[in-house]
Amino acid sequence: MSKEREPPELERAITAKKAKKDPSDTREGLILLARLAADGNRFEHMFRYMRRLIAIVAPDGPLTLHERKVFSSSCMILLEGQRETYRYVSKAAADAASVDPLRAEAATEYLELIASDIAKICSDIVGIIDICFLPAGIGPVGSAATPEARVFYKKMKGDFLKYMAEVKDGPERDKVAQDAFMAYSSAKEDEEQLPATNPTRLELELSVALFYFDIRCLPVAAYNVAKEAVDRAIQELEAAVQTASEETGVLLGRLQSYMDVWKV
Question: Where is this region: Disordered (predicted)?
């Protein structure tokens, strides 16, 4: 006995549903979902979508420049709320230390919990970068095969190790800070292949300068890094008789603003 056929319109609907792609299975769809999550202030969802995209693409293929930036933003935004809470509670603990010991003790205990959350997020992000974008080996490999991509990911790795160091103490802080410094140093070796006005290179110089100031407490070293980056970029622009792009101009402005603070 032959099976009764579905009505034509129902068959078409079933076929269309089967042919329809789930946005979370495509690069374009995941980027759109990440943007929607960010617009709705659901940053944990934004990060989750970008992790999904990376699982689809890397390490066999590179992320585009735009995808790299969205991934970096998802990580930074996810962490920034925790860092802001850490700064607030840290100040509350310090303010209460001499006037309200019980409040100070409670704030200190809560601070340890926040620090643990920050360290976990940073560790997860560094792990993604190491596994997917900077696999072990000699020479350019994986999805960070271009100098700009390697600078981008090594700089990003250094940043999140720096954020982890900010909530550590003693030898553990020193170890994580040294790991951050090594990541930045490796990135600076690759940056020589980029123009002095390249935004990724300038972002690295800004990160290194902030590392010297925030972690090593060396404002003179921070100032020198920023000044050298600005001088190189201006010299390159003058030699080519051209004006800086909007992104380059913004970064040069940020570097110069910090120089005004660090100048002694």
Answer: 1-21
245 dihedral zone (left: phi>0; alpha: psi -120 to 50; beta): beta
- The type of residue at 107 is A
Question: Mind giving me the DSSP string for 248-261?
Answer: HHHHHHHHHHHHHH
Measure CA 41 to chain center: 18
Q: Which residues of the chain have pLDDT under 70?
A: 1-23, 59, 136-144, 264
**3 state SS of 221:** helix
Rounded Cα distance between 232 and 102, Å, is: 53
Tokens of 263: 């100048």
Residue 138 has a pLDDT of 42
Q: What is the pLDDT of residues 75-99, one digit of tens each?
A: 999 999 999 999 999 999 999 888 8
Give how far Cα 59 sits from Cα of 55, 107, 131, 134, Å.
8, 42, 8, 9
CA 36, CA 171: separation in Å to the nearest integer?
41
Burial class (CB in 10 A: 0-12, 13-18, 19+), 60: exposed
Q: What is the mean pLDDT of the chain?
A: 88
Peptide bond before 8: cis, by omega within 30 degrees of 0? no
This prediction's pTM:
0.87
Tokens of 161: 């190790």
